[in-house]
Amino acid sequence: MKEQVKQALDQSTTRFLTALTRLLPGLVALVVALLISVVLAWIVAIAMRRLLVSLKFDQRLVQWGFPSPAEGSLIKSPSVLLSQFAAALVIMTGLLIGVSAFDAELTSLLVRSVFSYVPNILGAVLVLLVGNIIARFLARSILIGSVNLNFQYGRLLSVGVKWLVIVLAVAMALEHLRIASGIVELAFGILFGGIVLALALAVAFNSKELVSKSLERDATKTTSETLEDPLRHL
Amino acid sequence: MEGDFIPEQALEKIEQVDAADLVVGVLADLDQETVAAVHEALRTLQGDLRIVVLSSDGNSVRSQTDSASSATGPRLSVVSWPSIAPDASGAPMQSISAAYQSIFAAGEKLGARAGCIIASNLEGATPQWVRQLMQPVLEGEFDLVAPHYARRKFEGLLNSSILCPLIRSLYGKRIQNPLGPDLGFSRALFGARGSDRNANRIHPLASLAPVAICDNLRVCQVHVGPRLLPPTDWTNISSLLVQVLGPVFLAMERNAACWQKTRGSVPVPGFGEPLAASPETATVDVDRLLNSFQLGIRDLQEIWGLVLPPATLLELRKLSRATKEQFQMPDELWARIVYDFALAHRLRTINREHLLRSMTPLYLGWAASYAKEVEAAQGAGVERRLERLSTAYEVSKPYLLSRWRWPDRFNP
Questions:
Q1: I need a labelling partner for A10 at 20 to 30 A (CA). Which of A75, A104, B13, B305 fits?
Q2: Three-class SS of residue B180?
Q3: CB count in 10 Å sphere of residue A173
Q4: Strand partners for A29
Q5: Could you tell me if residue A221 is inside a domain?
Q6: Do A82 and A144 lie in a common domain?
Q7: How large is the C-alpha radius of gyration of chain A?
């Protein structure tokens, strides 16, 4: 009996040690891959931050219509944010390489599917970024233009157009990520329609005011007002 | 190089002329009578001059001038020039930029020693003022002859409020119309422009006076009559600001080394008798100007906050709460606003077109304040008011220098 217990223990120890020996290189590879990726991420982050600073990326973003850090944006510096994102991407890649070192079929599948999904993520990020730039640029153009044309609802119009473009960009990004595309399409349709309706109402109210003002002016026009405006700017 | 700017259909004709002493570009849409007066004025110039007139109306006046040209005195050749009519209500600066470039290029190609551009319709154009625009250059005394128009108090507000005082405070010369558009210029001046490879990137009108002053060329102004100006297009003021101020701020950036050394200002020599414009009788709709300003304060503060320091924004907010009777924009505040916008243009704080368009309500606010102040004033009173504004620009110049040199320094 005692001999059988000892044998069973020996066998289980051997099995455990064998399994551990089989797993250990994978674990070491994971740790090494992680360590290397952390060092690489650190280098990439520094290089990227320096490059973006030399390209005056933060100032350029403000020119493109993004709020500057001075405007109370949550992001302290877009250059820092982007470099941190790149570093996280490198660490993530190192982790996936490390995990795949276990050589298990499941992890290989996981790695393959994650890597095949990366282009979709990058595409979605690009769509969001470009959409954001266009939205803010258009919003600022509309705001300034409508103020210069004396439209009272310029701010509403500019915010409406900004969200219209952002919603469109988000829907396109989600479509790109293949996340619940049916629901996204439906939700986008409803949201887009809602914004267009809101804008139409805003414009209609604005026009109503303009028309009433114009009629009022015509009705109460005095002789002095019919005189030509003497202002000449150039 | 100069051939690039000359319109293709005119290049052949210019080559036929071969050489000239004086090139006169007529960009204004003048009637036959005025054209005849201009030609008459050219014939009265002294010396055996070869004069080339570049005119969009060239074909109709050719026979008249050719037959009138005598064997002695100036010889006139009229070259038909493609019509690039300056549309003052639409895009005046851009539409005449190419015309100016082409006339400078023609002058260089013909080896002319002087040139003159007549770009505006003037009331009662006489041979005297046309001759006066060229005489100082032909006699070799001056390189740039700027016009001194007889102005009514509400005319040329953009020039009175920004261009004239800004150029004066920056470059130290008191020129009433630094951007012309009617000008006389010497070969040395368009030579100086031609030697500067980047000068052609800036509108010729905006860069002429700064280039002349910074290159130590001699500048004067002549008194000419009032200009005929088209009515204000209220939907287009912001475009006007973009077209006019953009090149001026660009020239300011290019000549920073020059104007940073300049302190104070001196008057430039003047020629001719000052002419009086008929008094202004119409009244300005101040309410409309104030409404634009108030709307700007309400909606554009977010954008102005990127350009203007907090103290200026605070003053603007206070101003927006003033009643129509109390409303008065201090000259120092206006000068600092213009300087801050010039700096933001240089730093590209926001898109340059957005920046200049967003300045419109502020400009209209200044116009409202000015219109109220000079409502009852005429002649000398208006000149005194504008002199105060120019002095405010000069007094505030250290502010510009400080912000230009250290834009990141804290500015309360």
A1: A104
A2: coil
A3: 21
A4: none
A5: no
A6: no
A7: 31
Residue A234, domain member (yes or no): no
For residue A148, the chain B residues in CB contact (below 8 A) are 237-238, 292, 357, 360-361
Q: Which domains does chain B have, with CATH numbers?
A: 2-271 (3.90.550.10), 286-405 (no CATH)
Q: Which of B237, B354, B361 sits opposite A233 (nearest CB)?
A: B237
How far apart are alpha carbons A45 and A84 in whole angstroms? 6
What tokens were used for A63?
């020119």
Alpha-carbon gap: A120 to the closest alpha carbon of chain B (Å): 31
A140 part of contact set with chain B, CB < 8 Å: yes
Which residues between 143 and 182 in chain A have a beta carbon less than 8 angstroms from any beta carbon of chain B? 143-150, 152, 154-155
The answer to whether residue A222 sits within a structural domain is: no
Q: Using a CB-CB distance cutoff of 8 angstroms, which residues of chain A are in contact with residue B358? A: 144, 147
pLDDT, tens digit, 9 for 90 and up, residues A22-81: 778 888 888 898 899 999 999 999 998 888 888 878 777 766 666 655 554 445 677 888
ipTM for the predicted complex comes to 0.81
Q: Contact B327/B319 with Cβ under 8 angstroms?
A: yes
Q: Please tell me whether residues A2 and A93 are part of one structural domain.
A: yes
Same domain assignment for residues A92 and A133: no
Residue A124 belongs to domain with CATH number: 1.10.287.1260
| Distance set, CA B26 to CA A79, B57, B117 (Å) | 53, 9, 6
Q: Do A225 and B285 touch (CB under 8 A)?
A: yes
β-pairing, B144-149 vs B114-118, is unpaired
The length of chain B, given as a count of residues: 412
Same domain (yes/no): A7, A77:
yes
| Bridge partners, B115 (sequence order) | B23, B185
User: Mind giving me the DSSP string for B278-345?
Assistant: PPP-S---HHHHHHHHHHHHHHSHHHHHHHS-HHHHHHHHHHHTS-TTT----HHHHHHHHHHHHHHH
Answer left, alpha or beta for residue B348, where phi above 0 means left and psi between -120 and 50 means alpha.
left
| Same structural domain, A126 and A94 | no
Q: What is the 3-state secondary structure (H, E, C) of B49-68?
A: CEEEEEECCHHHHHHHHHHH
Enclosing domain of residue A47: 1-103
A2 domain-assigned:
yes
User: Over the stretch B165-220, which tens digit does the pLDDT of each residue have?
Assistant: 999 999 999 998 888 788 888 888 877 766 555 555 566 777 888 888 988 889 99
What was the pLDDT predicted at A175?
84
